[in-house]
Amino acid sequence: MKRTRLLSRTLLSAGLLFSCGALAAPPPRVPIDTYIARAWTTLTRSTSDCNSVVDPKLHTTPALYLPYGMPVPADVRAMQAHCKVDVRNLPRPITALGSFDGRGLPVQGLLYLPHPYVVPGGRFNEMYGWDSYFIELGLLADGRVHLARGIVENFLFEVQHYGGVLNANRTYYLTRSQPPFLAEMVRALLAAPGAFPSAAAAHDWLAQAYPLIVRNYEIWTRPGHRAGGTGLARFWDYGGHGPVPEMDTPGYWRGVIRWLLAHPAQDRGYLVKAPLHPDAAQIAALAHNSCNIAHSAACARAWYGGYRLSAKFYEGDRAMRESGFDTTFVFGPYGGSTADYAPVGLNALLYRYALDLAGFAHRLGLAQDVRRWRAAADARRAAMDKYLWHPRLGLYLDYDFASSRPAAYPFVTTFWPLWAGAASPAQARAVRSHLALFDRRGGLMTSTLDSGAQWDAPFGWAPTNWLAAKGLADYGFMDDAHRIARQFTATVHGVYRRRGAIYEKYDMRTASSDVVIKAGYTQNVVGFGWTNGVYLRLRRLLRQTPASH
Fold first, then answer.
1. Would you name the residues annotated as active-site residues?
2. Is residue 416 part of a domain?
3. Predicted local distance difference test score (pLDDT) of residue 241
4. Residue 411 forms beta bridges with which residues?
5. Residue 545's pLDDT is what?
6. Average pLDDT of the chain, as a whole number
7. Integer CA distances (angstroms), 65 to 60, 72, 162, 334, in order
8. Which residue segment(s) compose the domain that 112 sits in?
9. Cβ partners under 8 Å of residue 165, min gap 6
10. Residue 11: is its pLDDT beyond 70?
11. Residue 233: inside a domain, yes or no?
12. 262-289 tens-digit pLDDT
């Protein structure tokens, strides 16, 4: 632990790790474009240098894991000696997401990737699943084509060796993914000038990548990811019960219990009455209906006022973290019922994913696959219209299939079917007519409920603003798309002028980074990978009328 803290302090002092928003940022000394260009370098990691192994979320001995049976590469061997990092192989092959639970390893660590990648910043010092799509868009806009290609190839490596695109490349993320953008990442790379030396090389590369892109799609059609009998998908973590390893702090869980006790009408079976110091029989019962106190220190400390959180809550919490919307109340308080929902955003992404697969199959001359993927897209769109579309309201709403009811309030993902091309012209017009629900001075809020959580009102984020603006532009609502782009880029730029940094989230009402979060995470991290990328793409959107994603 001492070596971990020393390495972290060294990297922070060298400017290699971004600090959290609580620390004062220096005044800007360069134009924002220069800041972003330098940030790509500052935020770049690889699993052959010391920067990557540091995990600000856990205080453990730095460790790097290679796939089962893989020889130690020469650059990793050099890093191992220089950084005093424990390098190991995973104990067995991983054939599917969740087929191996990293919690059983002697120490948690970084998962090897063959190419450099860009991290978000701050406590997020690894390559994330959906962050990387927006980072890739920024890299391509900034001419960093080879770095962007390396990130895409890292994800293909994850699918091949770790079972799928992971939440991030840490061992404790081996049981869940994140919103599926892999096919779009491939499509963006194939369209980027200079990504491949020739059309023939691009074709050969796609032919090798295609089976892995398909394998990653199939994660979302497995039983665990099925939203009941709706024909839609849900978020799901194959890691079992109890608190997620990266939240090894009792304060968060106690805060959830306190909130639920103060709002008993919102408890959906999330609380279990239990003593702080249970006897052996009570411990055995809690392992079934809450979490395993004997095996998890975080579980043991997650107690307040005579109550613990239920196994149902932990199941939903884990699914919420796969959604990337951690934390929101749209899937129940603190996301505790996420596993009961067929979300608009996820299913819009999978519709687009299937269409992308049809496009790849067409390029490769696989006529039968083209028909297969178009049929899959059509079936998902029909299910979205049946369960997620509400003609009377003119909105797409997440669907609680366990109780056969829509979400209690609108979420910004109502615009994602436009980005995906899944909305009819009439549906797009209806959704567009409700922009005022989300539209504020700084851009689009994430939802209409001020729950106190960071993925609700009044907070706005780069990816949701981009997907909404791009979707509106694709359906011809350029005035709205440009207004959102102007508002959000003005927020990012205005905060940069005042504080000298780019942040992960902003308050859309005040167009500032002064976020006050009362439920869940309270920090506003500096960096910030996907904000940098979206800022560049929104600027480009303001200069032209794009014809495709």
1. 326, 504
2. no
3. 84
4. 447
5. 65
6. 93
7. 14, 10, 11, 32
8. 2-17+41-127+140-202+215-221
9. 129, 155, 158, 159, 177, 178, 180, 182, 216
10. no
11. no
12. 999 999 999 999 999 999 999 999 999 9
